[in-house]
Every structure is written in structure tokens, then in C-alpha cells.
Predict the 3D structure of the following.
Amino acid sequence: MTNKLAIIASNGGLFDAYKVFNIATAAAATDTEVTIFFTFEGLNLIHKETYGQLPMPAGKEHFEQGFKAANVPSIPELVDMAQQMGVNFIACQMTMDVMNLTKEDFIEGIEVGGAVTFLASAQDASVTVTF
């Protein structure tokens, strides 16, 4: 039996990114097959122009010091780590169409697909989480 994790990333903030990529890389490190479906604002997490500069939530600026002190990797570093560990990234085609985005707007190494593409990967997942 293969362990599989399916993640839906539908929010696009900095804390959302840390949740998604922390869970994804932790699972991948334990030989779990991981697929992340990026939809709506979640596309920010893999968009070339935004994923390196996701804003800190208002009133949470004090976390910046903590991230630095704890040596927490940046989102681009976590994205790269996840991809190197074999995490599958699927960008939602419907949302891309609605937002007038193309595959070229995103980081290298992603797949573009719809809900059916994600569901095919997620149907036998042992765990599914949404952020």
C-alpha cells in the first residue's frame, strides 16, 4: 500500500504557504506520495512574481524575527525542496482561465489540470487536507 497525501491550496498568504509546504515536505520525507492542487488565491504560492514575496499578515510582523531566528527556509526554498522530493504540483486550469493566466506565469515543473486531474490523484489518498 502506498501512502498518499492530497493537499488543496486555495489560500494565497504567507502563512498558508508555510502550512502547505511544511506538510508536503514532511510527508514526502516519510515516503508519502504528495500532490498539491493550487486553486484560486492558492495559485499565488507557485506564481513566479508572487511566491517569493507573499505578504506577512497584518499584525503578525513579529513573526519575521522568529522565522529568521529559527532559520526557517523561504517559500521559494520550500517550493524547490518539495519539487526535489517529488511533490506533484497541479495548477487549476479553470482558475487560470478565470484569472487570464498561463503556465508560463508559474514556476517550472508544474502540471496544469482541472478538478478531474486532482481527483484522479486524490481518490486513493490516505489523507486529504485543505489550506
User: Anything to note?
Assistant: The chain has a mean pLDDT of 95. The two ends are 26 Å apart (CA to CA). Residues 14-29 form the longest helix (16 residues). The longest strand covers residues 4-9.
